[in-house]
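Go through this one:
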Amino acid sequence: MTARCAAMPLPCPASGSGRRRGRPSRLGLYRNEGGATAIEFAMVAPVFLFLAFVIAELALLFIVEELMDRAVKDTARLVRTGQVHAAKMNRKEFHEALCRNVIAFLDCKSRNFYFDVAAYDSFAAIDSTPPLNKGGNFNDDGKTDFGGPSDIVVLRVYYQWPTSPIFGELSLANLENGRRLIGSMAAFRNEPFAPAAPGARGRAAASAGAGAAAGGRP
């Protein structure tokens, strides 16, 4: 301790410290970690949110496909059990019955919705090719052939699901128009039901409508 420091009323710094009061060391500034968490979050948050949105859209798509399968099976039961034959349904009436089973996620009245019902001679002859042209549009309005007793019938339903373009390479689109084609098919053999009696259209139509609303797997 120097003589000058001993004469002062305030305590002196320890000998050899080499630091002056009120001046932060350069090493102390380097070790300051204040705000590091905010910076790290700003770096990770965009990637995390991006993946979260991708997972959410994929989960919603899985839910829609599962519910579409259920709707197709419930509606196919109307054909298999002969209810559409007893009610003498046309394409428009069958479309309405199908829409009652389709969930609210799908707009069954839009051009993105497609269905057809066709009878085949054998299960090997079933055509499962999606009815799309090169531009991603549906080729036609679909067939409407419910077959007869004990006939092999196939009900196909397709929908062009909208996807988000912000996902880039992770987009779920599989069509050139930026949408994803989802579909469901039910292949079955009609029951050996009896032909509808004349004048029974009203009673059968009411029964078919109630069955379409209630649902039930075949």
